[in-house]
UniProtKB/TrEMBL annotation:
This is Stage II sporulation protein M. One of its GO terms (biological process) is sporulation resulting in formation of a cellular spore. GO terms for cellular component: plasma membrane. The keyword Membrane applies.
């Protein structure tokens, strides 16, 4: 019974905010495409410099000189949590609406640039490497960021309507409570993603690099 209630709440949420989700997903994909395009606009020297540092890093990974899993977990978790926390604050601040969208676009751009650069420099090996290093944790991180962005945008729009259009709507405190709860759940998912990035990704990366 409780499971069905949760499913209805989730279904209603996606139905109510479908247009925002569509906009946010398209914006993120535009960021990915833009990031991939930037790779092609780099000069030969810039690509060579970047690839030199990347090769040094791959050498360290191959020799087993990578950061401890505990450090990787903390780094990934705190980085992504700060990103989500900033979105949460921007959603409340009303004027932060455009910045939320810029942050999401930049996240897409980073993913697009990372994958695009690896493929551009290493071809099929680069695609395989990006598949095992970028994809596993981002299967959780990207949906979390998209949902968090949508919730922040929706909350910000509701606040704008209350402030400038003088629409009474639902009381602010229950709305804020739901908003906070959604981000607590998002942080739990990011914790799982950090675990994958710290434990699984280095093993997969090392096995792929050693197979080159």
């Amino acid at each position: 019974m409780r499971k069905k209630i949760y499913q209805n709440v989730v279904a209603n949420h996606f139905r109510e905010h479908s247009s925002i989700y569509l906009f946010v997903v398209v914006l993120f994909l535009m960021g990915v495409i833009f990031g991939a395009i930037i790779v092609n606009s780099l000069s030969f020297t810039q690509k060579e410099d970047l690839f030199f540092y990347l090769s040094q890093f791959f050498g360290q990974v191959s020799d087993g000189n990578v950061a401890a899993a505990n450090d990787l977990f903390k780094q990934s978790f705190f980085h992504n949590t700060k990103f989500i926390g900033l979105m949460w604050i921007l959603g409340i601040s009303i004027i932060g609406l455009p910045v939320i969208l810029i942050l999401l676009f930049m996240k897409g751009m980073v993913v697009g640039f990372t994958v695009g650069f690896l493929v551009n420099q290493m071809g099929w090996d680069g695609f395989l490497l990006s598949f095992v290093t970028v994809l596993p944790q981002n299967l959780i991180i990207i949906p979390v960021f998209i949902v968090a962005s949508t919730i922040s945008v929706a909350f910000s729009l509701k606040m704008i309507r209350r402030q400038f259009m003088k629409k009474v709507g639902q009381p602010i405190m229950p709305m804020l409570g739901k908003y906070m709860f959604a981000f607590v759940v998002a942080v739990l998912f990011l914790c799982a993603a950090a675990g994958i990035e710290a434990l699984l990704s280095p093993i997969l990366m090392k096995s792929v690099i050693n197979s080159f």
